[in-house]
Amino acid sequence: MRPHPLVFSDLDGTLLDHHTYSYAGAVSALERLRKSDIPLILTSSKTRAEIEALQQRIQLEYPFIVENGGGLVFPPAYDALALPQAEAVEHGRMLRLGRPYAEIRRFFATVQEQFQLRGFGDMGCEEVAARTGLTAAEAALASRREFSEPFVFQVRERPDELAAMAATHGLALTKGGRFYHLLAADQDKGRAVRAAREIFAASGYAIRCAIGLGDSANDCEMLAAVDIPVLIPHPDGQFEPLALPGLRRAPAPGSQGWGTMIHQLLDELERS
């Protein structure tokens, strides 16, 4: 089997434009990945329900990582992969890496008043839609949490103090483009990326390298777990202050920068 790269990609602000959630600037690059049979493993804070809907819309059928590394999902097309610890879920199998949502919410409830927090579990679909720019139907999918709780501080932000309290309960905070996220302490995108790479390799898949694309602080572990990390700028053109060996910086935000970098990297791999 000819070695292929694996591509791991964040969604909001990376493959999807920050304000519109459009992937228009990435269409030709997505088609090139499909034609080259290169797996694109979406790696996001989004829920399993959200990513399944997005994969259907973009016409993708690859494994994906949900809720900042909480779960690694393999659709039926990947039934041949060896997944001894995965469980059957609707539309495939899932390797659980995070803690159940009910446990996350139990801790959240104990600190909610002290820090004046408001999480997805407190919001109806209309509020989630208003805060995110999603449609009501999309907000309903975003509310189907399994491994993490997105939230906002309603008054002064005190993330360091909250993170210290969360750590005593085996939990942690991470910061995305719009929300903080409360999740298991050992849960992050990097751990899930490493697990995916190990599963592909153990199943005989010839991996040439791993490419990762992200734009925010919660993408740092993912970018550190790949061979070619790519940082996408924010809509204002500024980059998240990440320092990683070999880090590439895309020339444009969102899907346009994503598409440009995928074409550039595949061209480089084809020449080498």
Detailed description of the structure:
The chain has 272 residues and is an alpha/beta fold. The protein is built from nine helices and 13 strands. It has helices spanning 27-35, 48-58, 101-115, 125-132, 136-142, 159-167, 189-202, 220-224, 254-271; strands at 4-9, 40-43, 64-66, 71-74, 87-89, 92-96, 117-119, 149-153, 171-175, 180-184, 207-214, 228-231, 248-249. The chain has a nine-stranded mixed β-sheet. Helix 1 runs parallel beside helix 9 and helix 4 (125-132) crosses helix 5 (136-142). The longest helix is centred in the C-terminal third of the chain and has 18 residues, at 254-271. The relative contact order is 0.19.
Uncertain stretches: none
- Overall spatial form: globular
The percentage helix is: 25-40%
In terms of quaternary structure, the protein is single chain
Q: Describe the strand arrangement of the main beta sheet, using strand numbers.
A: 5-6-4-3-2-1-11-12-13
**Mean of residue pLDDT?**
94
* Radius of gyration, in angstroms, nearest whole number: 18 Å
What is the rounded distance between the termini? 18 Å
- The computed structural class is alpha/beta
**Largest sheet report:** 9 strands, mixed
The number of distinct β-strands equals: 13
SSE pattern: EHEHEEEEHEHHEHEEHEHEEH
Proportion of beta-strand residues? 15-25%
Number of helices: 9
